[in-house]
Amino acid sequence: MIRRLSNEVYNWLDDRTEISVIIGFCHRQLTKPVPRHLNWLFSFGTVTLMFFLSQAVSGVFLMIYYEASADTAYESVKYIMEQVRFGWLMRQVHTYGANFMIAFLLLHSVRVFFYGGYKKPRELTWLFGVGLLAVTLAFGFTGYLLPWDQLSYWGTTVGTEIAAATPLIGEYLLILMRGGEIISDVTLTRFFVLHVVLLPWAFIALVTVHLVLIRYKGISPLEGTDVPEKSPEELKQAGGKPFYPQHVMKEAIVVLLVLASMIFMIIYYPLPLHEKADPFNTPVGVKPEWYFLSSYQALKYLPKTIGIIGSGLVVLAICLLPFWDRTPARHPSRRPIATSLGILFIVLNIALALLGKISETEMTFMGTRYHFDIYGWPHAIGTVEEPAALPDTGGEGTE
Amino acid sequence: MSSSKKPPGSAAPGEKSGKTPGKTPPDPVRRRRFLQKCLGALGSIGSLMAVYPLIRYIEPPPEAEGANRVEIDRASLPPGTSRTVIYRGRPTIVVNTSDGYIAYNAVCPHLGCVVKWEGGTQNLICPCHGGIFGTDGSVLGGPIPGPLTAVELSVTDDKIIVGV
User: Fold this and answer.
1) Closest approach of A358 to chain B, Cα-based (Å)
2) For residues A93 and A55, what is the distance between their CA atoms, to the nearest angstrom?
3) Which of A238, A349, A397, B122 lies at 20 to 30 Å from A147 by C-alpha?
4) pTM confidence score
5) Closest CB to A283 among B127, B130, B142
């Protein structure tokens, strides 16, 4: 009876919308075979997409109580965390989700680089991917200010100040971003509009084209660009598995594992809300979020303008990667120079980020107390005496 | 049987074209292209005209730049203390030093943090990256690219006036 009814509804809809054509197209896309070399690393893109959806849902829920005004933003976030039922969970999911999303997007980019997935004919897929990375970082940057606490206020002050070093238009850019000389109510509303309206639509547009291109061109093979790519039938004969259910199952397992680790972090290491922003009181050792730490640290070693131009050139080189690396090989072992340069770039970024993390902190190592200056170099500032041994009480247990 | 297409206005040898020799009729395709280009140019100009007010809209209006003159009661700033106020949209630090009152734009030229007065050392310091400035605004330490910018200051019997 139910089947008959659903068939009737389906036929009625099909007569009017030709939905069977759409369903048939989706089915063909889902069952399209993927190459045999697809391993767990090929799930990072889906994990990123899952986090975008999670951010969209938790963001909408947060907006129910959030107030984008310098006078009330902090209090509204505090209210969400302390008064609203499961408000703490919603805010933690959103804050951790942002970090996880950026982390997996970076991992996905690294995976694509090492597997040569950006090479012909997938240059456009790469370009749209770089656009997605830029939009995601912009999400992180604009969202960071919204809680309006000391860390977010001063982190944004330092972050926007870096933009001021852009040659010719730096000062204008700074004023445009902040809506004035300093971070204020005007900046908060600007960042809020960017964060909840413009960036989500930009992300949706870019990700749609990115996914369509992936489905249209298929997953990049491991053979070089000089070898003709296999048709879906040839892929199937060569041992390729259908995208659904084989690869989708693999992705589902990764998504669940990542979600489990995020829940673990939320429960055991919840991210705090710091003191309310005070525009006259700068806290000691202001640092941006981890994903901006390496560029932030690099700017300490270089004059601001050179640092900005250098960062711009690095971004441009990454965008144009498929156009200047035209070697046919895709497998990482067959292009040792690109692989070595990629590893060097990653190691350099991690080293800079670590130096940024430990800079302006103090640490005890082998009985000596060190102060790490702004460049991350240690300076011994004294020794730490071993605590005196406790007097022997003559017994082991206590009653 | 020949069915070859002739371009408009052309005629086979010996055939009368019916047109005045030396005058070719206007090519409709060229005319259409020209009109398309005109339309494109008009569209571009129209788009630019629409973008201009949008950019001007997001630029902060002049009144957002803040007060041009700030008054502080002298009694509220005893010797060795400081006060930070917003002057022309920028945090400005006013200090009552042993040598008199000083006022500087409190935004550190390094990365935009706000400097503080440290009474013990009689210096202005930036808590962000350890920048140190003397009472004359000069750099005494830290990764600071330049000195603090002095702000005009005048003192009356009971007021300190920042700005003119």
Assistant:
1) 13
2) 8
3) A349
4) 0.85
5) B127
